[in-house]
Amino acid sequence: RVLFLQGGATLQFSMVPMNFLAGIGSADYILTGAWGEKAAAEARSFGSVRIATSTAEAGYRTVPQIDDIDFDPSARYIHYTSNETIEGIEFSNDLDAHGLPVVCDASSNILSKPIDIKKYSLIYAGAQKNIGPSGVTVVIISDEMLARVPDGLPSLLDYRKIAENGSLLNTPNTWGIYIIDLVCKWLADAGGLEAIQARNIMKARILYDAIDRSDGFYSGHADRNARSLMNVTFRLPTPDLERQFCTEAASAGMVGLAGHRSVGGIRASIYNAFPLEGAECLAAFMDEFSSR
Amino acid sequence: RVLFLQGGATLQFSMVPMNFLAGIGSADYILTGAWGEKAAAEARSFGSVRIATSTAEAGYRTVPQIDDIDFDPSARYIHYTSNETIEGIEFSNDLDAHGLPVVCDASSNILSKPIDIKKYSLIYAGAQKNIGPSGVTVVIISDEMLARVPDGLPSLLDYRKIAENGSLLNTPNTWGIYIIDLVCKWLADAGGLEAIQARNIMKARILYDAIDRSDGFYSGHADRNARSLMNVTFRLPTPDLERQFCTEAASAGMVGLAGHRSVGGIRASIYNAFPLEGAECLAAFMDEFSSR
Question: Chain A neighbours among B 232-291 (CB < 8 Å)?
Fold first, then answer.
C-alpha cells in the first residue's frame, strides 16, 4: 500500500514507533549517520530502542557488514537509513534482516534505482529529493504491518486509518501529489528505474573519479564501498581552500556546494533531477581548481 | 507567533490536546457542528474533554449565547470552531471566555474579516479555504501557551520546538508557503481584511436574500443570527428537486453545489477568492429556478 502523508520524514521518526513500538518490546536501529541518529532519538519517547550497530565511532564513513550485525531476534522492527545525505553514505543493497520487519528511511535515494520491495515492511520518504516537492511524505507499507497498528492512535498519525481512507482522511497536499504524478511520468518516459540508476551511477562516477585522480587534494569522506550515488562528500586540504572552492564554483554557476554546517567540507547533491552535464561541469572545475 | 505546519487542521485536533491537555485537567469544547465534534473526539484520546455546550439536539442550526455557557473555571482551554462548513454556522464575534484560554479552529473563516487577536490563545487553520493551497496549516499561538508545552513531545508535534526553530524544524511545504505570501499580498492590495469582510457580507447577503424572498421554496439551514458568510446552506422542497437544481446549475457553469454527503441539501461555499459576480449569478439562477 502506498500512502501520501504530510509532515515530512521527520514526523515518520515518531509515527513509526508510535504505530509499532508503543509499550511493547524493542526495536533495533542501525546508525550510519545523522538522520538515523535523529530517528532513534525520536523513537526513544515511545519505547525501547536498541542500537544494533553504529558506525559513529569511525566518523560515519562506512556501512556495516550485515553479517556482522547481531539483530535482536524479537525486535519489533529493524530501522535503517538507506542513504545519509550529510555524510554521503549509502547502502548499495536492500537490507536483509533475516526475516525481521525492515523499516527504511529512503527519503534521499527512493526512485534512484530499482529495489526489491518485498524485503521491506515499511519505507518512508519525504518527497523533496527524488519524488516531487516538499510537503508530501510517501509511505509504502505491507498489509502485515498495517494489521499490527494498535487501536486508539490519533487518526492522522494512524497508518491503518490513513490506508483505510485512501490517504484522504483529511485534505491532502493536492498540488504536491499532482507534481509527484508528473515526476513519475517523467521517470517512466526516461526509461524507468534501471535507466535512472545507470545515469546516477555515471554522474557519481564522474565526481568520485575527480576525487580519486587528485592525488589527495580532494579526500572523499565515505569509504569506497559506502559511497553515496546521491551525495558526494569530500574535503580540501584546508577550510580556507574549501571556502575559495565554493566561491569560485558559485561564480561559475555551481551553487549549494558547501557541506552541511554540522560537518563542513564540500557536498555535491546529485539527485535524479540533476543532469549529467552538471557532474561533468563540476568535475572539470575540480580538475582545474586542484591544478592551480 | 505564527507557525507554518503540515498535516491539516485535523492533525491539530490531536496536537492541541497533546500539547495542553495530556494528563492534566480538562478542556471545554463548544460543539456547533461536525468539525467541532471531530475535534472533541480526537481530544478524548489525550485527556478529559467536557462538552461545555452543544447545539446538536437542535440540528446544529445556531450558535450558543455565550452568557448561557457554564465554562469550567479550571478548564485548560476552551475550544470552538468559528465557522462550521458542513452546516453553514458561524460565530459573528470573537468568543469571550471570561479570561480562560481560547483555542479556535478558524480553518474556514480566517482572513475573511478582522478579528481581535488578543482574545485568542491559539488559532489554527488549514490553509486551503482563505489562506492558500492545501498542505499547510497556520497556527497563531501566544507566548503564554508556548510556555505551557510540556517536555518530551515528539519534535514535529511540539508547538514550542516548532516555534523555536522558526517553523524550520524540518523542510516545510515551501511552495505552499510561497503561495500564502502571494495570497496575503493580494489581500493587502484588495484593501485588507475590512475590505474583504465588506465584500464577503455582500456576497452572502445576495444569496441569503434569494433564500428569503423565495416564499419558502428555499429554506436556509442556519438560524438568521448564525448564518455563515462562507458557506450558505439550504434545502429545496424535495431531494429530487435538489438534484435537479445541482444538475441545471452545473449546466450553467456553477459546480460544487451539492451539500456535504452527511447532510445533503445545497451548499454554496463563497470563500474570499469567490467573486461577487458568482453570487449574483447563483442568486439569479435561484430566482429563475424557483419561479419555474
Answer: none
For the annotated catalytic residues of A, the residue numbers are 35, 105, 129
Give φ, ψ of B239 to 5 degrees: -60, -35
Which residues of chain A have a CB within 8 Å of the CB of B126? 170-171
Enter the pTM of the model.
0.95
Query: What 3-state DSSP class applies to B26?
Result: strand
* CB within 8 Å of chain A, chain B residues 79-118: none
Calculate how close chain B gets to A38, using CA atoms only, in Å.
10
Q: Can you tell me whether residue B278 is helix, strand or coil?
A: helix
Q: What sign does the CA torsion over A150, A151, A153, A156 have? A: positive
Within 8 A by CB and 6+ apart from B283, the residues are: B206, B207, B209, B210
DSSP character string of B61-123 = -S---GGG----TT-S-EEEESEETTTTEE-SS----TTSPEEEE-TTTTTSS---GGG-SEE
pLDDT digit string (tens) for A37-73?
A: 999 999 999 999 999 999 999 999 999 998 889 999 9
- Interface confidence, given as ipTM, is 0.93
Q: Which of B128, B152, B155 sits opposite A10 (nearest CB)?
A: B155
**CA triple A263-A268-A274, angle to 5 deg:** 150
Place of cell 507566548: B143
Strands of B12-77 (E only): list them: 26-31, 48-54
Measured between CB atoms, which of A8, A13, A171 is closest to B134?
A171
Q: Which residue has the cell 500500500?
A: A1
Instruction: Please report which helix (H) or strand (E) contains residue B276, including its range.
Output: helix B276-291
| CB pair distance less than 8 Å for B154 and A9 | no
How far off is chain A from B193, nearest CA to CA, in Å? 26
| Residue from the list A45, A152, A176 with its beta carbon closest to the beta carbon of B154 | A45
The DSSP line for B201-224 is: HHHHHHHHHHHHTSTTSSEESS-G
The chain-wide mean pLDDT, for chain B, equals: 96
Query: Å from A265 to nearest chain B CA?
Result: 22
Query: Which 3 state secondary structure label does DSSP give A124?
Result: strand
Report strand pairing: B2-5 vs B137-141.
antiparallel
**pLDDT < 50 stretches in chain A:** none
Each residue's pLDDT tens digit, B221-233: 999 999 999 999 9
Distance (Å, rounded) from C-alpha B187 to C-alpha B181?
10
Q: Which residue of A has its CA nearest to B177?
A: A135
Residues of chain B found within 8 Å of residue A175, distances taken between Cβ atoms: 133-135, 175-176
d(CA A142, CA A2): 9
| Active-site residue set of B | 35, 105, 129
Which cell goes with A278? 552538471
Q: Using an 8 Å Cβ cutoff, are A270 and A203 in contact? A: yes
- Give residues with Cβ within 8 angstroms of A156, minimum separation 6: A162, A169, A170, B7, B8, B10, B11, B13, B14
- Binary contact (A156, B7; C-beta < 8 A): yes
Alpha carbon separation from B224 to A172, B87, B144, B208 (Å, rounded): 33, 13, 36, 9
CB pairs A-B closer than 8 Å: 107
